Amino acid sequence: MNLQERFLKYVAFDTQSSEEAEGKCPSTDKQLRLAQYLKEELEAMNLTEVELDEHGYVYATLPANTTRNVPTIGFIAHIDTSPDCSGANVTPRIISGYDGTDIVLDAEQGIVTRVSQFPELKDHIGEDLIVTDGHTLLGADDKAGIAEIVSAVAYLQQHPEVEHGKIRIAFNPDEEIGAGAHLFNVEKFGCEWAYTMDGGEVGELEYENFNAAGAKIIIKGRNVHPGYAKDKMTNACLVATEYAQMLPADERPEKTSGYEGFFHLTGMEGSVESATLSYIVRDHDRERFEARKQLVLDTARRLCDKYGEGTVTVEMKDQYYNMLSQLHDKPHITDIARQAIAEACGYCNVVAIRGGTDGAQLSFMGLPCPNIFAGGLNFHGRHEFIPVQSMEKAMHTVVNICHITAQKA
After folding, report:
1. Is 324 helix (H, G, I), strand (E, B) or coil?
2. What is the pLDDT of residue 82?
């Protein structure tokens, strides 16, 4: 089975995770079906130490083919797809030699990926694009990463002349809901460092990410018959909208880029009696991150001063931190990745992640773990696509990292 065939096989599995299954891992049982398939595939490839644990984490080993003392390194990708869009009955289509025009996903329903809306398509003219039928996401995030890692291992098995040390691989559930690293067994994985294959555009290397927190704003209203509500009613829905308007309008995701942080309203619900707002808070800089969290609290305080004590309360929890603080004194990890990507792609583009990966959490758990491109674009929606050539370059990046690490030993 080649790389493209593997990827198409994996996206046939519906592995959508769920934020509603608190305390359960994996959050959805359907993730286990792909996990079991991967376990069987890795066993059929004669890898060693193949294991699927009760939480849906798959581990395996490609033994070293050298007697030299080479560090044990790892490669990680996640099994689940985003809750934001259906991952059931994915129907991929391959556009060979893409010509640079708009891509019609479903003519009957007028679903079109337009170059004017997704100009990154122009960077992949002449390549072979895998797209959706316009009704689901594709699942390149992160089944492309899985396919690239497994295919790289197969390549190393078929090319014993490529020297490498012990290589560990792992596939985990629930990355899309921020829980992918929570039950990852770093000690059992046994690596000096690792790489997640979970990035986007070809050639990219990421080792800076947002500091992240989640906040729930809880508003208590006072419901009174509207005919007699003067000076008595407090409408929780209106207080909620007032709260949302008090946060800086130009510091939302749709208004920011690069190293700019944001406040992102991800959900709201309510009635006159009660309402809730759900936010994610992000910033690359730790001091600005803490200031953003304080503004969330201060805004609640101002509304309590206006409407009464206890009207607005905040539940806030840090989710992950910028991995750069764990990598700045280990330059060899990113230097190897830079060289490997440059050899596979002809260049290496270092970018800061406007999000987070399992690698961020793993880095703080004692496993330094930068993030490498997997090649997909427009994740989490019906306009997701991936060039086959980008996947091939990602696979060769994995091979290169293994070989360079052995050479530098």
Report:
1. helix
2. 95
Residue 53 one-letter amino acid: D
Distance between CA atoms of 343 and 152, rounded to whole angstroms? 15
For residue 270, give both structure tokens: 């309510």
Q: Write phi, then psi, for 270 (nearest 5 degrees).
A: 165, 180
- Distance (Å, rounded) from C-alpha 210 to C-alpha 395? 26
Contact 54, 393 (CB under 8 A): no
Least Cα distance to 143 among 222, 90, 96 occurs for: 90
Q: Using alpha carbons, select from 349, 405, 355 the residue that is nearest to residue 372.
A: 349
Instruction: List 31's β-bridge partners, or say none.
Output: none
- Three-class HEC string of 279-299: EEEEECCHHHHHHHHHHHHHH
Amino acid identity of residue 244, one-letter, is A
pLDDT digits (tens, 9 = 90+) for 368-382: 999 999 999 999 999
The verdict on whether 80 is a catalytic residue reads yes
Is 298 known to be catalytic?
Answer: no
Q: Percent of the chain beyond pLDDT 90?
A: 94
For residue 100, how far is the Cα from the chain centroid?
27
Q: Are 169 and 148 in contact (CB under 8 A)?
A: no
- Select which of 14, 41, 80, 204 is catalytic: 80
Q: Which of 146, 168, 172 is nearest to 1 (CA)?
A: 146
Token duo for residue 272: 């006159």
Percent of the residues in the chain that have a pLDDT greater than 70, as a whole number? 100
Distance CA 70, CA 61 (A): 15
**Cβ atoms within 10 Å of 44's Cβ, excluding its own:** 9
- Of 293, 359, 349, nearest to 322 by C-alpha is 359
Between CA 284 and CA 269 the distance in angstroms is 29
Asked if residue 374 lies in contact with residue 152, where contact means CB atoms within 8 angstroms, the answer is: no
Which residues touch 308 (CB under 8 Å, ≥6 apart)? 234
Per DSSP (E only), the strands in 124-270 are 129-131, 167-172, 193-199, 204-206, 211-220, 262-270
pTM for this prediction = 0.88
Q: What is the DSSP letter of 56?
A: S
| 28-61 confidence digits (pLDDT tens) | 999 999 999 999 999 999 999 999 999 999 999 9
Residues 6+ apart with CB under 8 A from 97: 126, 127, 128
Q: Which of 128, 175, 198, 358 is catalytic?
A: 175
Closest CA to 369 of 354, 356, 351, 378: 356
**Average pLDDT score over residue span 296-323:** 96
